[in-house]
Amino acid sequence: MSLESGLKTLSQARASQKQTPARELTAKLFDAGSFTEFGCLAAPEVITGCGAVDGAPVYAFVQDRDVNGGAVGKAQAAKIRKVYDLAAKTGSPVIGVYSSNGAYLKEGVEALAAIGELLMWSNNLSGVVPQISLIAGPCGGAFSLIAADADIVVKAGEGDLFLVANEEDKAQGVVTVETETVDEAIAKVKEIMSLLPLNNISTTPVADSAEPDSDACPICQTVDGGSFVEFQAKVGEKAVTGLARMAGQTVAVAMTKGGSLDAASSAKVARLVRFADAFAIPVVSFVDCEGFSSIKEASMVAHAYAEATTAKVSVITGSAVGSAYIAMAGTGANADAVYAWPQAVLSGLAPETAVAILWNDKLAAMKNPLTERAALVQEYAETEAAPFDAAKAGLVEEVIEPGETRARVIAALDLLAGKRVSRLPKKHSNIQL
To answer: Residues 138, 144, 146, 152: what is their CA dihedral angle, to the nearest 10 degrees?
Structure first.
């Protein structure tokens, strides 16, 4: 190819780059003028490059469904593989934007092998640099495995994440945040990026502190106003999880909402704790839980908390009964600081069960057990399961009023800022899933 024809080809390629929604999305994702594209003439079905997102260096690949349906084959996988390689070398986050009709069918198993190699790269980077998937269009079949392998999955309304066609739950349990539009998804990705460190040995970004929005719930009255990003809002109704700032510092927040944690809620809490621990983000837990739906769920959550070496502060806002206390609030299971509200209940057994076993003589003496039992259970909770005895035993740092929670947690996190823990050498732990 002559110089003249080469320059003409390059000019035509650059002109065509301005015409697809995928390129417009890329421009919106990165700070103005910061994006540098890799291999602009090769495999145009995917755009790859690096740039700044609110000033932080980020690598990205963006599938372009307007070019050959965004099909993925060996050439496209090679471009994406370079993104992972450079992210590993530089310790920078990776954002993948997914919108493709699938693999190049003509390449058959070779295309699947190329996608499998990308999955290996993504897995190798897991816990090293943050990875965020933005589902902007169809993302199905083998490539959905890579999207789901990310730390955070943000799905726009027009996005579709599935392994097989007509999948009933549409991988709802995998999605971290859902938005109505792609523009909202881009904004959410940027918001989450602003809370995360560049890699597993970097510190999280620091922002100006802000007063809480309200005192409607433990999370709202504790974290900086407007900073909370909820994760998996549509699954696990017994728990609320997400990232937020507290006095300008990033924290992971888990709050249980009473009763027993079901499977989805337990998985939601465990995943947040493991994600936070991978990037040394402190975990703040608000505990109101009477146990778990099964031993599997109890083991999963307990393992996640016990394994995590990041700073962990727990506030018992309601019940912390039996396995729930051990897993999420017990100093024996590796909590660094534990506080309790005055109305909290700390007990090896639920008060109802404890009354039936330990106060059966009082039950037998009742004239109207059906009407008097509730009062007896309340008496047990207030006398035998109150947090004050636990505080005297050194199992709770302090019994605090709800309005004191923010100040106490911030002070605890300040003291734990330099926490360092060495563990026995091993490949990885074996958690119940």
So the answer is: 70
The alpha carbon of 358 is separated from its chain's Cα centroid by a whole number of angstroms, namely 41
Helices assigned H by DSSP within 322-402 = 323-328, 351-358, 360-364, 369-383, 387-392
Query: How many other C-beta atoms can be found within 10 angstroms of the C-beta atom of residue 328?
Result: 29
- Pairwise CA distance, residues 60 & 30, whole Å: 10
Contact 413, 405 (CB under 8 A): no
DSSP string across 232-259: -TTS-TTEEEEEEEETTEEEEEEEE-SS
Ranges in the chain, pLDDT < 70: 1-18, 166-170, 332-333, 355, 363-364, 367, 369-372, 376-377, 379
Side by side, the strands of the sheet bearing 56-63 are: 36-38, 46-53, 56-63, 94-98, 131-135, 152-155, 177-178
Beta-carbon contacts of residue 19 (< 8 Å; ≥ 6 apart): 66
Q: How many residues does the chain have?
A: 433
Contact 409, 314 (CB under 8 A): no
User: Taking the mean position of all CA atoms in its chain, how far away is CA 360?
Assistant: 45
403: left (phi over 0), alpha (psi -120 to 50) or beta: alpha
- Residue 405 has what pLDDT? 95
Dist CA 207 CA 247 (whole Å): 8
State the Cα angle at 237 between 233 and 243, rounded to 5°.
40
- Among 310, 328, 311, 307, residue whose Cα is nearest residue 319: 328
Q: What are 26-56's pLDDT values in tens digits?
A: 999 999 999 999 988 888 999 999 999 999 9
Which neighbouring-strand residues pair with 154? 134, 177
Quick: pLDDT tens for 332-389: 667 899 999 999 998 877 777 776 777 777 766 776 766 667 776 676 777 777 889 8
Residues forming a β-bridge with 252: 243, 283
Q: How many CA atoms lie within 13 A of 140 on its CB side?
A: 13
